[in-house]
C-alpha cells in the first residue's frame, strides 16, 4: 500500500487559531531577481497546521517536545469516522480499544472546515467524556481533523488536560478528506524544538492489509 500524506500544506493564507500569529511563507531571495540562491522564510506558531501537542501545552509540569517518545506517533492506528455534527462523544469510542492504541477521528471537519482560510468556531471536537474514556482505555495517541482536540466554546482545557495528563499525545490539523475508516500504519514526526509546548509535524498513513 502507498503512503498517503495527511498533513496540512503550510501557506500564508492557512487558517490559524484566533489570536495566533498568522502564518508567513515568504521568498526573500530569488534566482529570478538575480540573487545567488532561492531562500524562503517561515513564520508560524508551534500549533499551526498539522502539529503535535506536548503535555506542556496545558500542564505546567508537563514535558516539552524534546522529551516526547517518538514511538507514540508511529505504528498501527485506527481511523474512526464520527457523524455527530458537534462532538466526538464517549459512545463513539470503541469499548474494545487495546491499551496503547493510536486513534484518529474523522469528522465533518475534513469535508467542510479544514481547507477554509477563516477559522470556524463550530468545528467538531473531542468531548471531555470521550477524552476521559480514551484515557481510561490507556490509548497512546489521539488525532483530529481540525486545529484543536478540544472545542472552541466547550471542553477546550478539559479535553486537553484529560488526554495530555494521561500521557496521551495529540495530533491536530490532520487532513482526512480522502481517508476511509479502518486500520492504518501511521508515521508522524514533529520537529525537535527544545522547551516547546508543541511542534509542526508531517504525518503519513498507509492502509494495513
TrEMBL record:
Pfam families linked: Cyclase
Aminoacyl-tRNA synthetase as UniProt keyword: no
InterPro entries, per the entry: KFase/CYL, KFase_sf
Gene Ontology molecular function: arylformamidase activity; metal ion binding
Enzyme class: hydrolase
Biological or metabolic pathway of the protein: Amino-acid degradation; L-tryptophan degradation via kynurenine pathway; L-kynurenine from L-tryptophan: step 2/2
EC numbers for this chain: 3.5.1.9
Taxonomy, superkingdom: Bacteria
Cofactor section: Zn(2+)
Chain's role: Catalyzes the hydrolysis of N-formyl-L-kynurenine to L-kynurenine, the second step in the kynurenine pathway of tryptophan degradation.
Oligomeric and partner information: Homodimer.
Name of the protein this chain belongs to: Kynurenine formamidase
Amino acid at each position: 500500500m502507498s503512503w498517503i500524506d495527511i498533513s496540512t500544506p503550510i501557506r500564508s493564507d492557512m487558517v490559524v487559531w484566533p489570536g495566533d500569529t498568522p502564518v508567513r511563507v515568504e521568498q526573500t531571495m530569488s534566482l529570478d531577481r538575480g540573487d545567488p540562491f532561492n531562500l524562503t522564510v517561515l513564520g508560524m506558531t508551534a500549533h499551526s497546521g498539522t502539529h503535535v501537542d506536548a503535555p506542556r501545552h496545558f500542564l505546567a509540569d508537563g514535558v516539552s517536545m524534546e522529551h516526547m517518545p517518538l514511538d507514540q506517533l508511529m505504528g498501527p492506528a485506527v481511523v474512526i469516522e464520527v457523524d455527530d455534527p458537534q462532538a466526538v462523544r464517549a459512545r463513539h469510542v470503541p469499548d474494545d480499544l487495546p491499551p496503547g492504541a493510536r486513534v484518529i477521528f474523522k469528522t465533518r471537519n475534513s469535508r467542510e472546515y479544514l481547507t477554509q482560510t477563516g477559522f470556524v468556531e463550530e468545528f467538531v471536537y473531542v468531548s471531555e467524556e470521550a477524552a476521559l474514556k480514551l484515557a481510561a482505555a490507556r490509548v497512546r495517541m489521539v488525532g483530529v481533523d481540525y486545529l484543536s482536540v478540544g472545542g472552541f466554546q466547550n471542553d477546550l482545557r478539559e479535553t486537553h488536560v484529560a488526554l495530555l495528563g494521561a500521557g496521551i499525545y495529540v495530533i491536530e490539523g490532520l487532513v482526512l478528506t480522502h481517508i476511509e475508516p479502518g486500520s492504518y500504519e501511521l508515521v508522524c514526526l514533529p520537529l525537535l524544538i527544545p522547551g516547546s509546548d508543541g511542534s509542526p509535524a508531517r504525518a503519513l498513513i498507509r492502509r494495513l492489509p
